[in-house]
Design goal:
InterPro entries: AB_hydrolase_fold, TEII, TesA-like, Thioesterase. Belongs to the thioesterase family. This is Alpha/beta fold hydrolase. Keywords: Hydrolase. The structure is a single chain. Helix 1 (about 35-40) crosses helix 8 and helix 2 packs across helix 3. By secondary structure, the protein is an alpha/beta fold. The chain has a single domain, classed as Alpha/Beta hydrolase fold, catalytic domain (Rossmann fold), CATH 3.40.50.1820. It is built from eight helices and seven strands, in the order ββαβαβαβαααβαβα.
């Protein structure tokens, strides 16, 4: 099942379940290479590759979260023969949530949604980074510490990355979730205790978006706390899947 939208770095055809990973703004599927390595072969990890980056650089970015979710849901249809768990970080959490809603409408209830580094959909805040200058975008990158220092120092690389980043910021900053019933799947919200863009009380409001169980875990770190806690987070995912699958 080949698709430009899906990367499968460590195929695990014998795995009982799959984990679908959604990158942050400006991010790509390779952000989840190490998580895939850690979870395989127990879990078959699929990482989403949005247009406008890496091998899809020539394609225009999709600057609307709802459209992205529609397309990704279609691409995931052939992979729903096994239970899916969704994991998103930052912008990826919003997309994962929208995909979960669409999957449930089609009769596929995920084993769970991991929402990392993102306030609940019920918390709407205006954002203007996508309207700013290239310098404004760079300042935001440095503030969040989510981009390799080598990239920030390489002007040619930056020129390639900035249009994609601006498109992604347009998507997430103009995202206004449509009214929707709570998800039927459990939600696990993850956050850094020193995140400059997400308040812990905003993360806790993810509980309103599920009729199943809710759990919140706070880690030491900023917006990209995931990078420093990958073993603990992959353990959390593995244990959640094992418990949910046993039910």
């Amino acid at each position: 099942m080949s698709s430009p939208w899906i990367r499968r770095f460590h195929p695990a055809p014998q795995a009982a379940t799959r984990l679908v990973c959604f990158p942050h703004a400006g991010g790509s599927a390779t952000y989840y290479f190490q998580a895939s390595q850690a979870l395989s072969p127990e879990v078959d990890v699929l990482a989403i590759q949005y247009p406008g980056r890496q091998d899809r650089l020539a394609e225009p970015c999709i600057t609307d979260i709802s459209t992205l979710a529609d397309r990704i849901t279609e691409e995931l249809a052939p992979w729903t023969d096994r239970p899916l768990t969704l994991f998103g970080h930052s912008m990826g959490s919003a997309i994962a949530y929208e995909v979960a809603l669409r999957l449930e409408r089609r009769g596929t209830v995920p084993l769970g949604l991991f929402a990392s580094g993102r306030r609940a959909p019920s918390v709407v805040r205006d954002g203007y980074v996508h309207l700013g200058s290239d310098e404004d975008l760079l300042a935001e990158l440095k503030r969040l510490s989510g981009t390799d220092a080598q990239v920030l120092a390489d002007e040619a690389l930056l020129r390639m990355v900035l249009p994609t980043l601006r498109g992604d910021y347009h998507a997430i900053e103009t995202y206004r979730p449509a009214p929707a019933p709570p998800l039927s799947c459990p939600v696990v919200a993850l956050s850094g205790d020193d995140d400059p863009v997400v308040e812990l009380d905003e993360v806790a409001l993810w509980e309103r978006h599920t009729s199943a169980s809710f759990r919140m875990r706070v880690f030491a770190g900023g917006h990209f706390f995931v990078d420093g806690h990958l073993p603990a987070i992959t353990r959390e995912i593995r244990e959640h899947i094992a418990t949910a699958n046993a039910r």
